[in-house]
Amino acid sequence: xxxxxxxxxxxxxxxxxxxxxxxxxxxxxxxxxxxxxxxxxxxxxxxxxxxxxxxxxxxxxxxxxxxxxxxxxxxxxxxxxxxxxxxxxxxxxxxxxxxxxxxxxxxxxxxxxxxxxxxxxxxxxxxxxxxxxxxxxxxxxxxxxxxxxxxxxxxxxxxxxxxxxxxxxxxxxxxxxxxxxxxxxxxxxxxxxxxxxxxxxxxxxxxxxxxxxxxxxxxxxx
Length: 222
Ligand SMILES: [Zn+2]
Prior knowledge:
This protein is an alpha/beta fold. It has helices at 45-54, 72-75, 78-85, 93-99, 181-191, 211-219; strands at residues 3-5, 8-10, 25-28, 34-37, 62-66, 88-92, 120-122, 127-128, 134-138, 147-151, 156-160, 163-166, 169-172, 198-201. It is built from six helices and 14 strands. β9 and β10 (147-151) form a beta hairpin.
């Protein structure tokens, strides 16, 4: 069982390779339901379902799936997991259009492999009733409609691909996979103003304690 923080699970078995870790997060809500943040590459839904079985959570207990951004390693299992869980699905309004492939995404990184229409579109500052309340911060740069989700009470930041974990340090996701790095730098500086205890990165990391230091160490140089 990989419960890395109380009520925060890192789903096992969704990494494409040992060198490239991928973190799908499963969060316990208040009241016995669950929330998933991002969904992994196509085919990894089997690992997610196996993990749910292992911790004795019914797939239909997942009531919400929150997407940080359009890239295939985040949306690849969205359709099948939405079907298996019957969860409501969420993404930023810009990203929702790219996830629906209308229009097709023409930036760097792999686009979704099939169109999917999310149930609810988010804008900056919206709060999702999940895991005790998650604020959706529009953090463009890596992609145009990238979102990071912040649990203010516990100071948890689910940063998608805005930040990339390197041990106890964080970097920005490299320009090769980023739509517009200067905009990502601005988003990073904005997020560094939050009080962050745990930084839940999608690749590399996470940093579970005092992560604000690592974020500020990065953004002071930007
Ligand atoms: Zn990405």
